[in-house]
Amino acid sequence: MSEPVLRLENVARRYGDLVVVEEINFSLRPGETAALLGPSGSGKSSLLHIAGLLEAASAGEVHIMGRATSPLNDAERTRIRRATLGFVYQFHHLLPEFSALGNVALPQLIAGVKKKEAEAEAVRLLKLMGLGERVHHQPGQLSGGEQQRTAIARALANKPKIMLADEPTGNLDPKTSDVVFDALLNLVRGEGLAALTATHDQRLANRMDRVYVIRDQRLVELKKEPA
User: Ranges for the ABC transporter domain (predicted)?
Assistant: First the structure.
């Protein structure tokens, strides 16, 4: 069995006397998908931010690709984020002045990839997301679901090993949510990524390999409900 690409060991997050999460132990291997359920304010976003090195844990350790990250300086943590992690949020945050192609190519250009190669990879990802006919459209010309699928393609542009998604369909109607979630799962599994997705939707969560909930500040694995 392959080694975990993401491992949280006895992780806690506190703000003074307020305990957000504690004693979190969790791991993900390549190709695995996990859902994180819980209402707003339960700590889902904080846990994702800790896993994504956007927020420091108050205690415990986050291991990325087998490497402990707490001893690292800010520059090293930033390098790991850029090289290893892909982020998808509830709101797409696409740049309105760029086309779908330009939005997906941009992270690669920033990373030093040549324009021709970056655009070829952007087209490949957008086609995988079912947007082959929309590559030259600007965000304002795309539907909400198409914008979110473009954001997912952008998150994978630099070939991360881990995707972290925070309510990626939370701003969409149920039918569009299904389309976006199908595209996300197909792309994640096709590319062999590990993915942790926070959602409030039990139905969508059930389609992932494992389902967790934050309960009383701790992470509890749930038995998946029948499809």
Answer: 6-227
Q: pTM for the full model?
A: 0.85
135 within domain boundaries: no
| Residue 33 belongs to some domain of the structure | yes
User: Is residue 220 helix, strand or coil?
Assistant: strand
Per the structure, how many domains does the chain have?
1
In a domain, 61, yes or no: yes
CA quadruple 204, 202, 171, 84: dihedral positive or negative? negative
Contact status, residue 172 vs residue 200, Cβ threshold 8 Å: no
State which residues form the domain around 30.
6-91+153-222
Digit-coded pLDDT (tens) for 32-87? 899 998 777 777 888 999 999 988 888 999 999 989 998 888 899 888 888 889 88
Burial of 109 (0-12, 13-18, 19+ CB in 10 A): middle
CATH code of the domain containing 40: 3.40.50.300
Place of tokens 């892909």: 86
> Which residues, other chains included, contact 22 with Cβ-Cβ below 8 Å and sequence gap of 6+?
11, 12, 13, 14, 59, 217, 218
Mean pLDDT across 81-95: 83
24 falls within a domain:
yes
